[in-house]
Amino acid sequence: MKYVVKVLGSAILCAVVGVMGWTLFFHIPDTEGHEGVLQIIGAQIEGIGGIIADGAFEGYKNESMEDFPVINCLQTGNLTPGRYALGTLIGAKDHAGNTLNFNVKVKAPGAAQWNEYAGTDEVDFMNRGIYTLSVETEDADGRETTSRIVIPVN
Fold first, then answer.
1. Does residue 46 surpass a pLDDT of 70?
2. Domain residues of the chain, as ranges?
3. What fold characterizes domain 70-153?
4. In terms of Cα–Cα distance, which of 125, 146, 149, 124 is closest to 137?
């Protein structure tokens, strides 16, 4: 008898859980009259589809396809010790090829701190060694790029 109750008890429990799951999944209503999880989620997806079909999503789609700004090192090879305009060493352009302003943090060889400059400033590269530059720029649409450049001075 105990064996029959044990086996039938677990079968009855599975049936009860199954019926409750079925009820919740297919028959529970929301405030807009949709019944079941599938219809409720489907109604939300249709709402998003309407936004996409109306063209409100088109601007985001076009914007997301544009590239971030690009930072380039314009100098090839080693520098000799001296004073250089950052604009002759570094360039920044947006997705359309327009020149962008940029800011630079420079760390001299053996230095513990970074010095900040605008892209139009001149910087002394007087000590021989490897200078590390952290260059940041932002385009008109707010897309930001940061790039690290190393420049050897010999």
1. no
2. 2-64, 70-153
3. Immunoglobulin-like (2.60.40)
4. 146
